[in-house]
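debug: dumping io for the single-chain case to check the tokenizer round-trip. Nothing else runs in this session.
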Amino acid sequence: MLVSSRSLGEYRRMFGLTDADLSGTILDCPGGCAGFAAEATEFGARVVAVDPEYATDTATMREQGLRTLQRGMAYHLEHPDEYVWTYFTDVEQYQAERTQALERFAADRAAHPERYVTALLPDLPFQDREFDLALTSHLLFSYLDRLDEDFHLAAIVELTRVARQARIFPLAPMGSQSYDGLPKFLERLAAAGIDAEVKAVDYEFQRGCNEMLVVSQG
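debug: decoded output
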């Protein structure tokens, strides 16, 4: 799976984050090499990032992030029809922003290792409702070829245990514009006592993916 380095700017758009959201306690799961924890903390948020890759040292993760960035750039150039170049105007801006976010991550993890916790869904080492908000980017629904719906259900139940609300983006596998099984999966969430709502967001990079799923325990 890719170890991505997204910025606070991308997180704001992907998850419809407001300044009020950034004043609370936030779980970034998985955090990857994102600069979000470092940047959001400057706005007053208390952020904890979680990723199984945090078992490795920061220098190794930085190298993983750079490799992911290069792979991503090559894929975007080879599959231009799968992407919408509005948030990023071109590949050069994409590379610059993602690289900056990666360097923010590496510096922040070195200075504040307590913000970065090694853990793996669907088993998180946190108390019930420890966070106001959990953010899950490019894991759930993105890897439906590897992670089945049972995993998705267990992961969302866990996210809504540790956070009052969770937001998930995007809602389609990589290379796709939609997930046909989403309506039935929402029924499974409802049966498990999870309130779920699909909301449009002001962000689209993977073509057709401009919605997030907002979930909480009913």
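debug: round-trip ok. The CA atoms of residues 159 and 166 lie 6 Å apart.
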